[in-house]
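Hello again,

I reread your note about wanting to compare the complex against the isolated chains. To keep things tidy I'm splitting this into two emails, and this first one only covers the full assembly. Below are the input lines as submitted, including protein chains and any nucleic acid or small-molecule components. They are followed by the predicted structure of everything together. The single-chain runs will come separately.
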Amino acid sequence: MARDPRSFLPLKPVDVPLLLALSEEERHGYGLVREIAARTDGLIELDPGNLYRVIKRLVDDELVAEAGHRPAHDHENDRRRYYRITALGGRVLTAELHRLQALVRSPSVRALTRRVAT
Amino acid sequence: MMAGRLLSDRVFARLVAVFPRDFRVRFGDDMRDVFHDQLTAAHARAGSLGVARLWLRTPGALLSAALLEHRDAARHARRARNPANTTESPRTPDMFQNFVSDLHFALRMLRKSPVFTIVAVLAISIGSGAVTTIFSAMNAIVLAPLPGTADGSRLVGLELTKPDGRTEMAASSGLYEYLRDGTRKVKGLAAWSKITFSIAAGGEGAVVAGNLVSGNYFSVLGLRPALGRFFALEEDRAAQAAPVVVVSYAFWTAHLGADSSVVGHRVSVNGRPYTLIGVGPPGFRGVISLIPVDGWAPLMMSAQLQPERNAATSQSLRMFGRLKDGVTADAAQSELSTLTAARAIDQATPAAMRKFTGVHASMLRGIPEDARGKFLGFMTLLLGAAGLVLFIASVNVASMLSARAIARRREMALRAALGAGRGRLVAQLLTEILVLFCLGAIGGVALAFAATKAATSFPLPTDVVIAPDMAPDGRVMAFALIVSLVTGLVFGLTPALRAARDDISARLRDGSSGSGSRRTWAGNALIVGQLALSLVLLVAAGLFLRALGTSARVDPGFDRAGVSVASFDSRAWGFDSVKARTFFHSLSDRVAAIPGVTSVSYASFAPLTTRSANDNITLASGASLFTWIVNVSGGYFTTLRMPLVAGRVLARTDDGGAPRVAVVNETLAKRLASDGSALGRTFTIRGQLVTVVGIAHDAKYADLSEATPPLAYFSMDQVWQPTWTMLVRTAAGEAQLGQGIHDAMRAVDPNVPRPTVITLERATGITLLPQRIAAVVTGVLGGVGLLLATLGLYGIIAYSVNGRTREMGVRVALGARRADVLRLVIREGMWLALGGVVLGLVLAALATRLIASLLFDVSALDAMTFAGMSLLFIAVALLATYLPARRAAGADPMAALRSE
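Full-complex prediction:
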């Protein structure tokens, strides 16, 4: 049963960089932590507990799926579990980005950001 | 550093346990991987500091994530039970939400003042670490079930009780089989007895402690072999039917090169061909952790391995069993007691076994029941000492919290003005304090991991193994957390209440950030208390050190120096008594010929090694006397330089064909004849008449603090035992002598393996073990306590000096000299220190009574220790006061006056 992507909106702040990171390539847990930190200028540095809480929720909502185990890039002997974004996840992410875009382009946001910039 | 990161990984792995089970199963391993990567990255980026920073934020975040996950799981379950009602009751999430937001806020506040947080967490970690380490050792040795066993709490060890209340450990095989077949409450009753094995897989054999065990031994324990298999029940049905052996994992790695192909192959056990059928699980070394066992063979092989033992009458089996589901140890005990009592009145039962009328069942642990009480008492003392450190640390943190509460008055007032109720403020402050103590508990557990690891590798002056692994388990961690939370509540509630109580409007009007009211009477009392408690610990450490010092001067009645000992078990060589006796005689002749050796002798065991044997003797008057016994060869008194008071020593001619004779010590001689004419008197033991041919000086027997017992020395040629300890007085070193003895042994019989030779001083080291451990533990704790208390003193003086800059400035402006200001501040600190010393000495005088029995001849009120420690203490306190005092004296009067 395909759910309407809009029913998932708005996404939580941490979901966007996570889904974005997965839309580029499949990643394992620590790869996600690093990528999310990089995308948020270090604002969000997830601990393992909260990371897997988010992953659990996204997997249960079928936005993200497991992509099997394989060796991590820098740990040849150590197999890690990788995650990928699902088709539904892709649609939800797109919908959320459209929503954010609309928000950022709204006149009141423009007025605010201009004031901060000057 | 690598070790530190491994430790971090281990601690984190334990922390994951706070998540709900489902979550853990699904993501536990992944979470550990991620943390490991974060750790590696943090370490690569900023070294230990990075690791510390990671640890500062991870546990709290993990805890709040786990709490939310628990809530979600509970909601999910509720919804699954009651799908119609999807709305939540409004109250629970509110409280929960409050708690989670308090938690987040607390973490943010703690992160905002990292110095305070780190210092406080460190202090709590040290205190909690001390308590946790001791508890962890206690847990591993006495409280926890045997390591490696499945559902170990269902295992009970059995002892036999006699009508007079005394207990014995060992049963005959008849009694064992009777109970095993008769019980309905115990699922499986297993038995084992001690033996020495010499196991060889080609090449020279290794001599190890072994057990002969019933066929169900491993299955009752619930163990699985690391390799191969354990005994099948039919391998323990018929005598000598199955020459099979199982070795420990430790033996397999140390002596068989961890080679899995040896399983199923022939090895030689005590000179006979056996099949090695399996390797035990790692860590399992038998059911008594003091004597690690390396080999197991079926009980039915006893007839072959111990040919001269009469299986029907010998009484050597220790029993343990697994309780059936729903049966308590008490129920099993009363059932087995009834069975034993019924057998005692049955005339068909052998007389020796009729003396038992009951059974005592208790949880099976690594330490036998009789030693458990003594050990627990000792550990409780140490736990008390560690508790003092935790107390000192908590007081320290409490005063830091009070200072912080004063500094945060404005924040509190503002939040109250914005509508936060007093309850919410207290809850929020308490959350902050409890988070601190939780972090401290985690630090404490990490410390305990490190300390127990260091303790197990600490070189003991003896070969006894106390416990192979004392690392904290789940129970210890729960203990650490509960202790920390309770301490946090006790010490945190007052500062939290006080901070939230302040009058709001007064605080908001007050423009300053609320620094420095003069420190309170309560603050002073806390400092004095800390100082006093650390002095108590130092005095205890000093007393133990004095006791160790004097113990070297306690005259045991013989000369330990220059004597080496080696223990033999002739059963391990496959010898019978005739062959063994000849062997021991020729061996001592050959060892006596080794250059440097001046005297050689044998004894059942070396003196002062806590070992003892005893029996009742009947005096000529008909009175019965409980007497200690040791069997020796004639050279014993020469080797130990124990001159006889009267008569002669034992000789080789005092053998089986000659009348039985004994040498007695002075204490026994007095009991035999109070007029000093014991020589030539007789007594009987087990129906045999014994004549006294010599009287020896009283000497220490089992341990240094004992009162001299009545003691009889019997001739080794008139009694038989397969095990003997050789005592050699020599100018040669241990290694050289070991080689010499081994050469001598091989000259007599080429197949006997190498013996272990140690000095008698080392062998007797075990008697001082409690003092050594106590000295180290109280010494370390005392040092830490003193450090914490001194920091507290320093803090309070520095704080007070800071608050009084203006006063000092005025004093200097009015003509006070630098020395006057110095004196003023130091006097203040010294009053506190002196208060601590006086209170500490009083407390110490009360407390050292508890350790008096461990101090030999040293008085529990030893003046030198008390005075010495007080002086050390005052010197340290002086330093702690001098530093802030110097700063106060250096204050620039103009700057101080202008600052207002």
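For quick reference: The CA atoms of residues 59 and 848 of chain B lie 40 Å apart.

B.
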